[in-house]
Amino acid sequence: WQAKILLHGRLSLPADPDREFFAVETVIDSGRWYAQFPIGGPLVLVPGALIGAPWLVNPVLLAVAVVAF
Asked: What is the pTM of this model?
């Protein structure tokens, strides 16, 4: 979710008018929606989201780590 927000060049989303239906503990809702966690992890997933395969990022990073080791 956060990687898709970053992919569109934004750091947050405008709050939904029906906030009570979308209340989640890990999402800060103060007029804007954003996650309570740092953006480092989702930022790494953005290249995968660009090609439509964010699941591919972790195996590629593992392969890079194995080669580097």
From this structure: 0.64
